[in-house]
Amino acid sequence: MSTPRGFVLGLDLSTQQVKAMVLDDELVVLTEVHVHFDKDLPKFSTQGGVHIHEDKLTVTSPVLMWVEAIDLALERLVQSGVDLSQVAVLSGSGQQHGSVYWRQGARKTLRNAAASSPLHLTLQGCFSLDEVPVWMDSSTATECRQLEQALGGAQSLADITGSRAYERFTGNQIAKVYRTWPRAYEDTERISLVSSFAASLFLGDYATIDYSDGSGMNLLDIRKKCWTQRCLDACAPDLAEKLGELVPSHTVLGPVSSYLVQRYGFSPNCQVVAFSGDNPGSLAGMRLQAGDIAVSLGTSDTVFLWLKEPRPALEGHVFCNPICQEAYMALICFKNASLTRERVRDRCAAGSWEEFSRALRATPPGNGGNIGFYFDTMEITPPAVGIHRFNTDDEKVEAFADDVEVRALVEGQFLAKRVHAEGLGYRTEPETRILATGGASSNKDILQNLRYTRLGDVPKPMIACHT
Ligand SMILES: Nc1ncnc2c1ncn2[C@@H]1O[C@H](COP(=O)(O)OP(=O)(O)O)[C@@H](O)[C@H]1O
Ligand SMILES: O=C(CO)[C@@H](O)[C@H](O)COP(=O)(O)O
């Protein structure tokens, strides 16, 4: 058996795409491929990787689309010429909070997947739900109130799990699945997060949920690092058994599946490390240190930082830290982010990021006193909806000139990050680094506004960009 040379494969199963990257043993990127759900797998008819249902609250993705996308990403890696037999270790991340429901008997099928057939065909009958809830879903208000009530109130729930009940958090989603489709729930032998689901496809067996992504479920005791029985009981029966064990985020789960070895030429010695949520993954990948603040500008916008002591509040989240078991991470999430920027780009900047950037450069910081709040859909932080524009005299107006609209959107989004972060006690010091990641962080003119509307009152925090 040959020993692989030490390449590393990293994957991200996020809202709009799968990204895969191979690095050599000195962490030089050898190749990178993307599979964009809407463009590369049009038969699933997603928009932005999701299906928004008629009630405008329910948001799902087809689970087999994710399986097919991962196979396609691996095929593209092989086509790029990279030698997958040299990959010594692989790991990855997934959009947080989404859940996958494996039907009774699915484990056996997964373990025995034949290399002659792509995984999405083998796993066709393996899911008790074809369409699964993702982080954009906000249809579980009833379940949230029930969970908070069962735990003695929103703050009591937050004190244990790091967050009050949030609609997108997995425990509330599972409670809705149980209430709406009790037979499908009964027929489920394992519930995965998107991250542990993706890891399972590489492991050829059910992968365990890690502490950090598990913190986004309203079920895990973030201090004791175990499931909270009272939360499980309030959501659905036999839940502990369907969720399985929990592990630290850097746990080596075992070697890759024989499917991967035979179909793509992986070494049977290649090890799978637990996958985590995309934000915990960014904290690890950006090598965030205590005192740094990270801003992720992906489909969602998030602000997060390394935390020594958990102090859960009624706004924002505290997750277990993916790197250090004694530490935590604080996070605030904004739903109206890249997709809202794209909408305004299409209406006010001829559908071009260059034109969007030009509009930012053509307008002064502060936007001449014009300000706007753009919540196309119900926001997470704060829970608000609608477009609200105010002119220099603080009067509500219906519209702005195109360039003013572009700046009002970006400044409004960044000011909201600052206001809510400061509300939670985040402060910047002169040496604070603000690190940006996610798709929109490639846009320097957008990042420039992160500087103007910086998260504190220091003259020049350092802003670095990791895309
Ligand atoms: N030059 C750019 N300027 C602003 N936004 C951009 C630019 N390029 C890509 N984006 C945004 O990045 C988003 C995707 O970010 P990404 O982090 O890959 O998302 P996700 O991981 O959630 O799928 C797109 O929706 C797009 O709006
Ligand atoms: O809900 C959250 C964090 O709590 C989101 O940040 C999701 O994790 C989606 O991530 P992206 O696809 O936008 O990166």
Note the beta-strand portion. 15-25%
Basic shape:
globular
How far from one another are the termini?
Answer: 37 Å
What structural category do the secondary elements indicate? alpha/beta
Q: Helical element count?
A: 18
What report would you give on this structure?
With 467 residues, the chain is of the alpha/beta class. It contains 18 helices and 25 strands. α18 links the parallel β24 and β25. The longest helix has 22 residues. The chain is globular, with a radius of gyration of 22 Å. The structure holds adenosine-5'-diphosphate and 5-O-phosphono-D-xylulose. 5-O-phosphono-D-xylulose binds next to α14 and β20.
Write a brief structural summary.
The protein is of the alpha/beta class and 467 residues long. Helices cover 34% and strands 24% of the residues. The protein is globular and about 65 Å long.
Fold topology:
Blueprint: E1 7-13, E2 17-23, E3 29-36, H1 37-40, E4 51-52, E5 59-62, H2 63-79, E6 87-94, E7 99-103, H3 106-111, H4 119-122, E8 131-133, H5 141-150, H6 154-161, H7 170-180, H8 182-186, E9 188-193, H9 194-203, E10 209-210, H10 211-214, E11 220-221, E12 226-227, H11 229-235, H12 239-243, E13 246-247, E14 252-255, H13 258-264, E15 271-273, E16 276-277, H14 278-285, E17 293-297, E18 301-307, E19 317-320, E20 328-334, H15 338-348, H16 353-362, E21 371-375, E22 386-390, E23 396-397, H17 402-423, E24 433-437, H18 444-452, E25 462-465
The site of adenosine-5'-diphosphate has 16 residues, from helix 15.
Annotation keywords:
binds adenosine-5'-diphosphate, alpha/beta, binds 5-O-phosphono-D-xylulose, 467 residues, disordered C terminus, 6-stranded mixed β-sheet
